[in-house]
Every structure is written in structure tokens, then in C-alpha cells.
Design a protein that fits this description.
The structure holds 2 protein chains of 2 kinds.
Chain A lengths: L2 H15 L4 H25 L4 E3 H16 L3 H28 L8 E6 L2 E5 L1 H17 L1 H13 L3 H8 L3 H26 L1
Parallel strand pairs in A: 1-2
Antiparallel strand pairs in A: 2-3
Helix pairs in contact in A: 1-2, 1-3, 2-3, 2-4, 3-4, 4-5, 4-6, 5-6, 5-8, 6-7, 6-8, 7-8
Chain B lengths: L7 H15 L6 H9 L3 H12 L16 E2 L2 E10 L2 E8 L5 E6 L2 H4 L2 H14 L10 E7 L2 E7 L3 E3 L11 H20 L12 E4 L4 E3 L5 H5 L6 H12 L4 H4 L6 H17 L9 H10 L5 H4 L5 H10 L10 H11 L2
Antiparallel strand pairs in B: 1-2, 2-3, 3-4, 4-6, 5-6, 7-8, 8-9
Chain lengths: 194, 336
């Protein structure tokens, strides 16, 4: 990201912080570009059988953007949540693109970090996770959001709770239930396909 | 499955039963779910499927002390936290027994060299089998996190049992002898403790002393990434029991543990650390240069004999100290 773009991100973040919601709409495409570049750099570093680590990618982009923008601590979680949303789109698009080619994805993997545990997903699993999250969002958008933030943005339970405006206990309960549902759902889809 | 959640009321009901079931012992869950779902077979299947997938990922975040499971160990409650990580009471889901699981600090796990040393020490420590040594059962990692599994001791750390004016001689010796036995046993097995201090000894309700972290504490404890304030606190806590050769960064052998043992015994009977100073630097300087007041001069009920034993353990020159397999142990035994 060149310096004028960083300046623009700073300006938009300030505006967003100042309560201008429309700044977000301008910010997302810039995040998209930055996160895509981070993914690209990671791919180049790691070569053919690469694993894209969502948290590392988001952090890398975050550090670049945050340094320029001097994001306040309380905005950090919200900003990461935004990154998570964008990162999900990038990775899901990439996974679906892989699936539509004859190679069916090859050795490409996405590593979802939830701090302690890291799960590596194949392109097919990434696509199924995306479907399941979309389904979940229809009946329980908060839980869908929570999973998105933790899986694709590496947010902690506390940060997730902060963004969603719920207690830590509620965030934990949400998380545990939604996670069980997702796993069950993804396994079910897998079974149906066989 | 997806169809089931189109209905919000049903979704809410599934969630409620799920959480209520999780609050029960695993063996009580099927019966509860059966009752809660009544004749709704589809609902029961959904809840059971969710419960079956509950442990598929680790639930929460170790750094915040809310993990509910690591490897085959189900974490039940936090027993304590410190520079060496957090310790949980846990159940070994395979053997059904209770264990203590220590989750090591992430900074530690990221350090390849320290981790390698730790692994070596853990292996050595796991060979120790003694009634006064906390047994090391297992070591593993999950994701980015390393953990150590130990025998669970329902007890209190010795440092919290020592009153301001010291323990009664009889009680101090009761613990002291057990600690000396444990240390002597480990030394015969070729293992040094390197960080003997009251906080590393657990005392059970029946007065059995159990020494923790043979060879391990020093490997993990040296934590560079904490804030200066905390780091100073940790070093200060540990520095007070260091031997002069440790304080000077020289190679250490079994006699270094003897020195630390002497400092512990001194504190047990007097209530004061022999080299307590205001800062790490002056504590270390005192360990290297100062002679503490004899224990018998600090506390009235300490005999000259016991005071002499403590002094023999605390000689600056390692060659002048008691040997644990000889003098130190029997010295403590015959001293009162």
C-alpha cells in the first residue's frame, strides 16, 4: 500500500470512528485490496502447497493499516471484525474458484485460527463453511457473525463480545453452540454427498 | 438439518437443551435429552448431533483461561496462574482420573530452544517416582499450545502456610525432611530441581509435602516477554532462593539445590527469607556476599543445632555444604 492510500485509510477510519457510517463503504474495498495482497504475499512465501492462515493474514494487513491510522484500542476489535468479513469473502471466492477448476483445489488449504486450535480446511470445506454460515445468519445472525470474527479474523472471545455488545459469558455460550452446529452441519452435508 | 433452524422458536429450544445438557455429567446427558425432547424424535436427533460435535474444536482461548478441553483432558477449573502458565484441575477422559494440567505461556511455546530443553527435562522428570515428588504424567501440544500433565494434589503451596514468625520447629522439620527426601531421591536419579522455593512445594491436608517442577521451573520461568514490572516480580520471587553460583551465572550441580533448601528451611522456621532485599540486584548481591543472621538469633524456638544445619546448607562455597544424600538429610532429621 503506498503512502497516499494509507493516508486515505487513515482518513476513512477517523471518519468511521467519528460516526460516519458511509466511510465504511469506502473502507471495505481498500481493506479488500490490502488483505488480498497479504494473501498473495503469503502464497509467494510458502510456495505451491500453501496454507493461508487467516489470523496471520488479517494481522499482517492490520499492522500495516493500524500503524498508519493509529487506531484506538477500542476500535481495534471493530476494525478486526471488518477485516474478518472481508477476509471471509476473499478466501471463499478463492476456494470456489479452485473448486470450479479441474484440479479441484489441489494442496491449497485455509487455516482457521481460534487461538488455541487451528483447523485446516480444503477448498470444499471452506465453501461448505461459507454456506453453513449463510444459513445460520438467517435465523441467528449474531452467532454467524461471531464465528466469522473468530475464524476469519482471529478475534478473541473478549473482542467478539465487545463487537457484538454482549457479555463474555454470552459470547462463550454462543460460540460453543454455533461451533457444534457448524461441525454437525458440515458433517451432514459431507454425508449427503457420499 | 438446515431446515430445522428456519424456525426461530425451535432453534431457541435446541440451544436451551444443548446448554442444559452440557451442564450435566456426560453420563446423564442422553436421559436428559430424551426427557427434554419428549416425543419429538427429530429434535432429539438434532440435539444429540450437536452434543456429539461439541468437542470437535477446542472451545475457548487458553490465554484467557477458559479452555474447556486440551488433548484428552477436560479442564474443570483453574487452580492457579503464574509466570509459568496456568494450572487447571482436569479429568483424563481416558483413565477417568483427576490430573493437574499446566498450560505453558505461548511465548514459551514459540521459543524452539527453550521448548527443546523443556521436553528433555520433562522426560527426565517423568521418570521420578517418589511420595514427595509431584509425578509428571504427560506432555503434549494442541494447536500452538504446550501443556504438561501432572498428578493432582489437593493441597496448598508451602509459602502460604508459613506465618510471619515462622512455623513451629516440629512442623517445619516435618516438611523439611520430606522435601530433603524428595531432593535426595531426585539427585540420585541425576535430576536437579534448580528452583526450590516454598511456592514449589504443595502440602496436603494430612501434612504430606510434595515438590513440584523438578528441573522444569527454570526452563519455563525465565520469561522475557512480560512487562518489566511483572518480570522483576518473578525474578525477585525466585532470586531469593538462588544459590550464589546460580546468582553469578556459573554452572550448578546438586549442591546448588542444597543451598536453596537451606534458604527454605530458614524461612520455614523464622518466617523470613535469609536474603530478602528490596530489589533483585541487592538480593543477588546479598546471596553472593552477605551472611544472614543465624536462624536461632531470629526466632527464639530454633535450636542451635538446627540453626547450624541451616548454616551448613547455606555456605557460599559449595564444597562446604552438606551433601543431600548424607549430611543435609540426616542433619535435618536429627536436628531438633
Amino acid at each position: 500500500m503506498n503512502s497516499s492510500a494509507a493516508g486515505e485509510v487513515t482518513r476513512l477510519l477517523m471518519a468511521w470512528r467519528g460516526g460516519q457510517e458511509e466511510a465504511l463503504n469506502r473502507l471495505v474495498p481498500m481493506l479488500y485490496a490490502e488483505l488480498r495482497q497479504a494473501a498473495h504475499r503469503s502464497r509467494r512465501r510458502q510456495g505451491a502447497g500453501q496454507t493461508l492462515q487467516t489470523t496471520a493474514l488479517v494481522n499482517e494487513a492490520f499492522v500495516k493499516l493500524a500503524q498508519a491510522a493509529e487506531i484506538a484500542a477500542r476500535d481495534r476489535a471493530h476494525f478486526l471484525a471488518l477485516c474478518a468479513q472481508v477476509m471471509r469473502r476473499i478466501l471463499v471466492d478463492a476456494a470456489r474458484a479452485r473448486l470450479s477448476t479441474k484440479r479441484g483445489g489441489g494442496a491449497w488449504r485455509v487455516q482457521l485460527n481460534e487461538n488455541v486450535h487451528a483447523a485446516e480446511l480444503t477448498p470444499g470445506e471452506v465453501a461448505r463453511l461459507d454456506d453453513a454460515l449463510t444459513t445460520l445468519a438467517r435465523v441467528d445472525p449474531r452467532k454467524s457473525k461471531a464465528i466469522e470474527m473468530r475464524f476469519f479474523g482471529g478475534l478473541s472471545v473478549e473482542e467478539t463480545a465487545q463487537v457484538l455488545g454482549v457479555s463474555r459469558e454470552t459470547a462463550l455460550r454462543d460460540w460453543r453452540f454455533a461451533r457444534a452446529w457448524l461441525k454437525s452441519e458440515m458433517n451432514g452435508v459431507e454425508r449427503d454427498r457420499r | 438439518m438446515s431446515n430445522a433452524i428456519e424456525d426461530e422458536a425451535r432453534w431457541g429450544r435446541i440451544e436451551r437443551i444443548f446448554h442444559e445438557a452440557l451442564a450435566l455429567e456426560p453420563r446423564d446427558r442422553p436421559g436428559f435429552v430424551q426427557t427434554a425432547c419428549g416425543k419429538d424424535e427429530n429434535l432429539r436427533q438434532l440435539v444429540e448431533s450437536l452434543l456429539a460435535h461439541d468437542d470437535s474444536f477446542i472451545a475457548q482461548d487458553a490465554s484467557h483461561g477458559t479452555v474447556d478441553r486440551i488433548g484428552p483432558y477436560r479442564l474443570q477449573r483453574k487452580l492457579g496462574a503464574g509466570g509459568m502458565g496456568e494450572v487447571y484441575l482436569a479429568q483424563d477422559t481416558r483413565l477417568g482420573r483427576q490430573v493437574a494440567v499446566k498450560i505453558l505461556p505461548r511465548e514459551f511455546s514459540a521459543d524452539v530452544e527453550r521448548r527443546r530443553r523443556f521436553l528433555r527435562e520433562a522426560k527426565a522428570a517423568s521418570a521420578l517416582n517418589h511420595p514427595n515428588v509431584v509425578t509428571v504424567h504427560d506432555f503434549g501440544h494442541e494447536g500452538e499450545v504446550d501443556y504438561l500433565v501432572m498428578e493432582y494434589i489437593a493441597g496448598r503451596p508451602l509459602d502460604r502456610l508459613i506465618p510471619h514468625n515462622g512455623l513451629k520447629t516440629r512442623e517445619a522439620l516435618h516438611y523439611g525432611i520430606q522435601i530433603a527426601d524428595a531432593v535426595a531421591y531426585a539427585h540420585r536419579a541425576g535430576i536437579l530441581h534448580r528452583d526450590l522455593k516454598p511456592a514449589n512445594v504443595l502440602v496436603t491436608g494430612t501434612g504430606t509435602a510434595k515438590v513440584l517442577d523438578f528441573g522444569l521451573a527454570k526452563v519455563i520461568g525465565n520469561d522475557h516477554t512480560r512487562s518489566a514490572e511483572t518480570r522483576d516480580g518473578i525474578i525477585l520471587g525466585t532470586a531469593a532462593y538462588m544459590s550464589p553460583e546460580q546468582a553469578e551465572g556459573k554452572p550448578v550441580d546438586a549442591r546448588s539445590d542444597i543451598f536453596s533448601f537451606g534458604s527454605m528451611l530458614y524461612e520455614m522456621v523464622t518466617g523470613h527469607q535469609p536474603f530478602h532485599r528490596e530489589s533483585v540486584a541487592s538480593t543477588i548481591a546479598a546471596i553472593v556476599h552477605d551472611e544472614p543472621r543465624p536462624a536461632s538469633a531470629v526466632a527464639d524456638d530454633v535450636s542451635a543445632e538446627l540453626s547450624g544445619v541451616i548454616q551448613r546448607c547455606g555456605r557460599k562455597d559449595p564444597a562446604q555444604r552438606f551433601g543431600m544424600d548424607g549430611g543435609g538429610q540426616s542433619g535435618a532429621r536429627t536436628a531438633p
